[in-house]
Specification:
This protein is an alpha+beta fold. The chain folds into two domains: about 55 residues, no CATH class; about 90 residues, Putative Large Serine Recombinase, Chain B, Domain 2 (Hect, E3 ligase catalytic domain fold, Alpha-Beta Complex). Helix content is about 40%, strand content about 15%. It has eight helices and eight strands, in the order ββββααααββαααββα. Strands 1-2 form a two-stranded antiparallel ribbon. Bound molecules: zinc ion.
Length: about 180
Amino acid sequence: MKTKCTKCGYESENNPVLFSLPICKICKKFAPKDPEQLEIYVDDKIDGHLLDSFRKFSEGGNAQKKAMIKKASQGNLMSRVPFGYKLENKKLVPAESFREVEEIFEEFLTTKISLRKIAKKHNFSINGLKKVLRNFTYIGKIKFNNQIHEGKHQPIVSSTLFNHVQNKLEKLGIK
Ligand SMILES: [Zn+2]
């Protein structure tokens, strides 16, 4: 029976199962061993077609994993296109909504409005909003496999603003 990878949506009869979640062989290579971490990992969805060029590699050895890390280190997006960006000729460029991202960062940093209210105002779930506030893509970086690389795309939030927001998230104990 075919199953769908919980992270990238890849359909296969050979998807392994981790803690009762079907996961494709590629996503499994980067999957954390801890069930709670795994949930966070699969929750960060990626487009399956992004991985297509890597599926041709043989499954033995680490060629596949190395190729993906290389792609990330060259500054290519390895996740879904985040809010505030769009793809143009396969390149990540700011979308019409890019100013709203900065607005969200400013709002969280400089006001006492709750996460819940900010999320509601901008049509996000609370978890969705937390992901926005922690997304390194906005400062022009690519985060992959717990490493941060210089991206090829244009930042839409300044590093200073981003860092202040990370400090506030930490100070408030927001997980
Ligand atoms: Zn997958």
